[in-house]
Amino acid sequence: MRTQVGIVGAGPAGLTLALLLQREAIEAVV
Q: Measured in whole angstroms, how far is the alpha carbon of residue 11 from the centre of its chain?
């Protein structure tokens, strides 16, 4: 199953969330 996540906000929290999702092989767009 392919999961995509959209993150609104490119501050420290948004970028950290994108990094954590990437480590779990979940595609995220900031």
A: 12
Predicted model pTM: 0.78
Provide the 3-class DSSP secondary structure of residue 12: helix
**pLDDT 10s digit of each residue in the chain, 30 long?**
888 999 999 999 999 999 999 999 999 999
State how far the Cα of 30 lies from the Cα of 25, in Å rounded to an integer. Answer: 15
Three-state DSSP class for residue 28:
strand
Domain locations in the chain? 1-30
Q: Which sign, positive or negative, has the C-alpha torsion 17, 22, 25, 27?
A: positive
The token pair at 8 is 């609104």
